[in-house]
Task: inverse folding
């Protein structure tokens, strides 16, 4: 169904998405919104795997597995991250990233 | 096989200690483990002497080789000669008594005993390894737990001392790495580089190479042997360390320096040693005199003993640098003798401190009356330290002096006389301490009722004293055993 | 003759038993055990002497026992052995006998002391070491026992360890002798470097080839051999309390009085004399300069100590200075002696050593008996004691007569030989020796009269005669002091082990008797009854008297050197240097590193987003570089 | 322009726009919802290329799981009405330059690279097929990573519970 769309266009879209995620990660100060940025980046990369599989190796389905595993890991990561946020919020009543710098020593 | 057991037993003991249920079990496990170790060391001595008696003249006995990292020709090479056997004996005696001297450690005792035993493992490994790389590995294994032991269980400005000690020893290690790698890359055994000491002994390194790497290696080992001016870690480190750690450190760890200098720096690079020995002779004789005179101005018991260790260990390096068999024999004897008596000193200081809660000499006095057992032991340690015949110190010092004086050079003989003068100073400071600490009237009312020595304290001190006396009265077997191994190194 | 080993082993066994079982042993048992051991040793020693001197015609060196103790090189090794020759056999007899007397005496004197067992342990250790010293087969064995003797002396001087003076005195004695031993050790090393052996058999053989080398090479204009022997003599001088290493001996009197009798009068302090006698052939043949030094030091100390003795008031200190003075005689005699036929001085010295051991031990035992009775050392607090202690009085008088050199007591004969020997050498030495003989008689009888005659003093407790067990050794020693002079010493002990025929020099004998009698008479006049005369003389000689009383301020000089110079000018600066220079440098390295890292630390803001910025910028930069490189 | 292309560009536009909104919106809950849309767009893309299973997973896990988690955490930590403060303009500028630079670089690199698109027929990625491969232990089987991921998830779950759990002393 994608015969008319060149692969590079898809890749440009995903890289746009990736850098938007990066932008979000860098500008936001709320940890949750930073996490949203991270999710966007992950998702962009995920699409890349699938698209490479679709365009370049259509006879194989390895791309599926990468995507699946990444989704699983993303889920795990989100769960742990959010657990940390909640704990952090409970301790310092804030999830502002700039206030979380105690670990530098 | 017995050599492997010598490393495995402490490791197992340390592991077992980590799983101990309570303080009692911890101590019992450590004591049992180290008793086995002690027995094993004596068995090793027996096997060694038997082997030698049966006419085996191999330079190294019980050798074993396990390939470890063939890419760089690193092997787990082990084996012992007379010197290592003697040092292993010393180590097992000191760690055995160290366990009993720290019988009353209260905080985090499991970790304490485990670190202590791991430290000893490093020392044992160091003495049996024949591969420079493995040797260095064990060396580090011995140095690192020291940081924790002083930093956590120490007293006084312990963080400062622990940091200082570790950093200075690490700086020495850094030099050592350079030295060892220098030796490695200049070696050529059947087309490959080698770390094996036996193989390296037959290498004829060029004099240019030796001139660079001899001083580096010597100073690298010299730092832990308290070579002037790299000795200041010793007084601070010893004074802050807990009792058993001081014992082990001054008793055994400082000896790694002398052992390394003898077996690596001098054995592998003899030409440069001959050429450059005068510089280090001056430094070491400064150590000897400086340490001894420095003691007089000190008033803290541990500082006193630490400076005296600087002086005595200076004598070890001094003797090694004389580059003849008699003096080197004396050096090894001195390592053993000083190891035993300084362990005894530190043990006793710890025991006194736990009762009087001070280490300042002039705050105490007349302890002979209230603590007769410990005081008599202290006097014996003192007499050993000032070289009384019949105790080990005399044997060691005299062998050094006679050996050093055999040197045909005028310079060497004059500097020997300078070193000999330290025996007078030693007598001065030992008697000062004995006089004001143990004799005279009792200074404080509360000292009238101090707790007499407990069984574990008695066990620790008596073991050390017996060792000191045996060496002092019948030194021939030990001296011959060492001498015969020195032939392979110095000829 | 291997039973000789027992002579040495028995006291050692006593030391071990008493030392190890210290508190578990009842006092009586411990005391009698040690005394019994030394008693058997004494019997054996006399038996040995008897067989050695009377059953063999020539006095060869015998080595009945020897083991290797430590090997330095293939040739250089320390043996532990027993060497019997005339002087060592003679010393065996002296040491065991005096020891036995003192052991016996101490049973009474030390009765009820808290550290009774310890006392006997140390005393046995001392006897063991001293015996080991005199039978040493080589120089190094001698040195080892020499050190052991020093330590047992230290332990015994410091016996009353809760008395600060005793502790200080013990320390002083040990350190000064240690300093002397430093010289001794260097001397041994120097000698062994050339001869490649420690063995007396080789070292004392004047024909040893090494000596030619040693006399040939010189250092600062003095031959190496002379240096070596002077250094060895330095050790001897330290132990024998020769000027200027004498200052420990008077202080050593802080120890229990029987200890002073044994160690600091009869045996240990003559070790230096023994040492020189041992090495005598070398001294005599190859280093006459060193022998001159011995004579000079001996003569100087002889006079010096006698002068001080006249001014002291502590009974034991007077005896201590007298000991120094008498050892000076022995050294002087050795110093002026020749070898072989001219070896009168050697024999005289040994003879004096022998007789001196008896009468000086007796003097100390007597002093002990007095001190025991009145609990004071100060002769100004004594007087008229002959009423209270008749036996002590008699034996003390005998000892005084012996030391003053009145015939037929022992001291007369030996001192007379010494005077004769000095006359052969130099008139100055003779004059000193003779003058001091008078001085000796004077100060001894000053002591005697002040203690036993003079005014009646009021005592807190009525003084009583000592117990039987203390009197027996005193009486035995008194008999010894009275008759020992009749032994024909030259027949047995001489520099070359050949019998030496000695004829009494009538003039010298007469002179010495006159001088001694004069001394006694002056003392009688001054001190028999209370008299203002001594005070008057003291005040006319004001400065001189004061200086002598203060022992010529030698102590203060030492104190100045050690306290002011060594402590303040060397040790303290070293401690300072260590802290402020070496340590500061190390600390500086550490702080510098710390500072730098603290500065760099700013980069580590802890802000997550800063890290992300840097990371992303880094990635972009690297990709840019890669693109431009590959383009 | 083919229909498929039109659909793709529409989806792409949606994804980009909602992504942008998700990172710029000052209302945090909205940001989460925009994220949901962006993720849903991704799912649509997967549908479009006939990867139904993946699309389903994307929807269930991402949209259903993660976004819901995020929304929960927002509810737990933030007030709904609270508006996030504006990021500093300087920061925005720098970040924009940096990310734009990165984007341009990526696009440049993409344009330099010639992708060889394969003509081979597409394999059916049916659920059963995927399932067999996922649990297969033969050639090309993924059972080991599968197990590893399972353990990871378990660990994450336990970790999350331990971290988020109130300490006994807190309550």
Result:
């Amino acid at each position: 169904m994608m015969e008319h769309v060149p692969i590079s266009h898809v890749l440009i879209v995903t890289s746009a998405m990736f850098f938007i995620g990066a932008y979000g990660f860098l500008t936001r100060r709320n940890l949750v919104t930073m996490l949203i940025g991270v999710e966007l980046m992950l998702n962009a990369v995920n699409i890349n795997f699938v698209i490479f599989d679709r365009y370049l190796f259509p006879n194989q389905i390895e791309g599926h597995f990468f995507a699946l595993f990444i989704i699983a890991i993303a889920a795990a990561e989100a769960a742990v991250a959010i657990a940390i946020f909640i704990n952090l919020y409970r301790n310092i009543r804030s999830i502002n990233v700039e206030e979380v710098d105690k670990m530098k020593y | 096989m017995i050599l492997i057991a010598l490393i495995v037993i402490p490791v197992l003991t340390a592991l077992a200690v980590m799983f101990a249920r309570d303080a009692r079990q911890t101590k019992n496990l450590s004591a049992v483990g180290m008793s086995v170790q002690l027995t094993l060391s004596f068995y090793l001595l027996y096997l060694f002497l038997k082997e030698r008696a049966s006419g085996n003249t191999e330079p190294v006995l019980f050798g074993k080789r396990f390939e470890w990292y063939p890419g760089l020709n690193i092997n787990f090479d082990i084996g012992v000669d007379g010197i290592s056997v003697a040092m292993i004996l010393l180590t097992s005696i000191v760690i055995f008594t160290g366990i009993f001297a720290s019988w009353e450690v209260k905080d985090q005792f499991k970790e304490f005993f485990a670190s202590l035993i791991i430290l000893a493992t490093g020392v044992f490994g160091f003495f049996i390894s024949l591969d420079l790389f493995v040797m260095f590995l064990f060396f580090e294994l011995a140095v690192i737990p020291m940081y924790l032991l002083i930093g956590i269980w120490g007293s006084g400005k312990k963080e400062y001392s622990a940091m200082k000690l570790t950093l200075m020893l690490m700086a020495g290690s850094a030099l050592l790495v350079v030295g060892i790698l220098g030796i490695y890359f200049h070696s050529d055994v059947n087309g490959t580089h080698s770390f094996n000491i036996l193989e390296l002994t037959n290498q004829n390194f060029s004099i240019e190479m030796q001139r660079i790497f001899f001083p580096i290696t010597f100073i690298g080992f010299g730092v832990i042997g308290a070579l002037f001016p790299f000795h200041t870690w010793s007084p601070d480190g010893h004074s802050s360390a807990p009792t058993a750690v001081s014992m082990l450190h001054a008793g055994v760890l400082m000896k790694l320096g002398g052992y390394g200098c003898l077996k690596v720096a001098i054995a592998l690079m003899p030409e440069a040693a001959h050429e450059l020995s005068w510089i280090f002779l001056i430094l070491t004789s400064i150590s000897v005199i400086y340490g001894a005179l420095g003691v007089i101005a000190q008033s803290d018991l541990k500082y006193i003993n630490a400076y005296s260790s600087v002086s005595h260990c200076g004598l070890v390096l001094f003797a090694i640098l004389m580059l003849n068999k008699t003096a080197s024999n004396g050096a090894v004897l001195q390592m053993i003798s000083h190891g035993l008596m300084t362990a005894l000193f530190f043990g006793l200081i710890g025991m006194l401190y736990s009762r009087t809660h001070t280490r300042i000499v002039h705050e105490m006095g007349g302890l002979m009356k209230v603590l007769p057992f410990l005081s008599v032991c202290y006097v014996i340690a003192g007499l050993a330290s000032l070289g009384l015949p019949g105790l080990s110190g005399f044997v060691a010092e005299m062998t050094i002096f006679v050996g050093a004086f055999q040197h045909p050079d005028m310079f060497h003989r004059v500097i020997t006389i300078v070193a000999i003068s330290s025996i007078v100073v030693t007598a001065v400071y030992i008697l000062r301490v004995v006089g004001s600490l143990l004799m005279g009237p009792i200074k404080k009312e509360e000292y009238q009722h101090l707790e007499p020595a407990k069984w574990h304290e008695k066990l620790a001190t008596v073991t050390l004293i017996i060792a000191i006396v045996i060496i002092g009265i019948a030194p021939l077997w030990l001296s011959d055993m060492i001498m015969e191994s020195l032939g392979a190194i110095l000829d | 003759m291997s039973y000789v080993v027992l002579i040495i082993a028995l006291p050692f066994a006593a030391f071990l038993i008493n030392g190890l079982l210290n508190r578990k042993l009842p006092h009586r048992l411990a005391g009698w055990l040690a005394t019994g051991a030394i008693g058997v040793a004494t019997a054996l020693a006399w038996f040995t002497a008897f067989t050695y001197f009377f059953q063999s015609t020539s006095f060869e060196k015998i080595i009945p026992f020897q083991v290797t103790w430590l090997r330095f090189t293939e040739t250089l090794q320390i043996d532990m052995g027993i060497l019997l020759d005339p002087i060592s056999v003679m010393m065996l007899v002296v040491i065991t006998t005096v020891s036995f007397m003192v052991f016996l005496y101490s049973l009474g004197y030390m009765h009820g002391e808290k550290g009774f067992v310890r006392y006997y342990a140390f005393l046995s250790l001392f006897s063991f070491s001293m015996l080991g010293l005199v039978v040493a087969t080589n120089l190094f064995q001698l040195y080892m026992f020499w050190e052991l003797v020093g330590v047992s002396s230290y332990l015994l001087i410091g016996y009353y360890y809760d008395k600060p003076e005793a502790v200080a005195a013990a320390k002083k004695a040990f350190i000064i002798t240690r300093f002397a031993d430093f010289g001794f050790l260097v001397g041994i090393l120097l000698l062994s470097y050339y001869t490649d052996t420690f063995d007396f058999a080789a070292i004392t053989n004047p024909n040893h080839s090494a000596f030619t080398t040693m006399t040939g090479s010189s250092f600062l204009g003095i031959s190496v051999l002379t240096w070596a022997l002077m250094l060895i003599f330095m050790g001897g001088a330290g132990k024998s309390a020769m000027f200027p290493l004498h200052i420990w001996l008077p202080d050593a009197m802080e120890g229990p009085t029987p200890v002073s009798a044994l160690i600091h009068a009869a045996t240990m302090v003559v070790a230096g004399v023994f040492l020189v006698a041992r090495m005598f052939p070398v001294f005599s043949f190859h280093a006459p300069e060193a022998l001159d030094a011995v004579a000079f030091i001996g003569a100087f100390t002889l006079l010096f100590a006698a002068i001080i003795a006249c001014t002291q008031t502590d009974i034991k200190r007077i005896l201590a200075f007298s000991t120094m003075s008498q050892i000076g005689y022995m050294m002087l005699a050795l110093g002026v002696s020749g070898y072989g036929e001219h070896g009168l001085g050697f024999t005289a010295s040994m003879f004096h050593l022998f007789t001196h051991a008896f009468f000086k031990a007796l003097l100390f035992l007597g002093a002990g008996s007095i001190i025991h009775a009145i609990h004071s050392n100060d002769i100004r607090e004594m007087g008229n004691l002959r009423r209270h202690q008749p036996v002590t009085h008699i034996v003390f008088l005998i000892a005084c007569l012996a030391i003053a050199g009145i015939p037929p007591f022992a001291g007369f004969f030996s001192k007379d030989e010494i005077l004769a020997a000095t006359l052969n050498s130099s008139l100055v030495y003779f004059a000193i020796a003779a003058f001091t003989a008078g001085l000796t008689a004077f100060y001894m009888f000053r002591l005697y009269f002040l203690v036993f005659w003079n005014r009646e003093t009021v005592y807190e407790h009525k003084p009583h005669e000592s117990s039987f067990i203390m009197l027996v050794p005193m009486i035995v020693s008194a008999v010894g002091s009275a008759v020992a002079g009749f032994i024909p010493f030259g027949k047995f002990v001489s520099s070359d082990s050949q019998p030496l025929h000695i004829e009494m020099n009538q003039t010298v004998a007469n002179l010495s008797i006159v001088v001694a009698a004069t001394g006694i008479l002056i003392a009688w006049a001054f001190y028999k009854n209370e008299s203002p005369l001594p005070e008057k003389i003291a005040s006319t000689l004001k400065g001189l008297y004061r200086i002598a009383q203060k022992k010529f301020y030698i102590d203060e000089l030492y104190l100045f050197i050690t306290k002011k110079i060594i402590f303040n000018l060397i040790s303290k600066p070293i401690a300072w240097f260590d802290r402020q220079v070496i340590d500061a440098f190390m600390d500086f390295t550490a702080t510098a590193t710390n500072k730098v890292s603290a500065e760099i630390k700013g980069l580590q803001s802890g802000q997550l987003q800063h890290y992300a910025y840097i990371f992303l910028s880094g990635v972009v930069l690297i990709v840019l570089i890669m693109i431009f490189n590959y383009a | 322009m083919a229909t498929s292309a039109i659909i793709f560009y529409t989806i792409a536009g949606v994804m980009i726009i909602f992504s942008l909104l998700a990172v710029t919106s000052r209302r945090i809950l909205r940001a989460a919802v925009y994220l949901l849309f962006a993720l849903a767009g991704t799912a649509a893309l997967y549908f479009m290329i006939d990867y139904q299973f993946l699309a389903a997973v994307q929807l269930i896990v991402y949209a259903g799981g993660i976004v819901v988690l995020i929304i929960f955490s927002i509810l737990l930590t933030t007030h709904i009405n609270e508006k996030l403060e504006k990021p500093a303009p300087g920061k925005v500028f720098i970040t924009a330059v940096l990310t734009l630079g990165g984007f341009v670089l990526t696009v440049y690199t993409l344009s330099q690279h010639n992708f060889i698109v394969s003509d081979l027929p597409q394999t059916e990625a049916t659920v059963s097929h995927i399932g067999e491969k996922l649990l297969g232990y033969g050639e090309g089987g993924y059972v080991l990573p599968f197990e590893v991921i399972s353990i990871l998830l378990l660990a994450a779950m336990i970790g999350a519970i331990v971290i988020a759990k109130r300490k006994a002393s807190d309550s």
Remarks:
- Chain D touches chain C through nine residues (CB under 8 Å).
- The CA atoms of residues 71 and 77 of chain D lie 10 Å apart.
- Chain D has two domains: 1-87, 124-166.
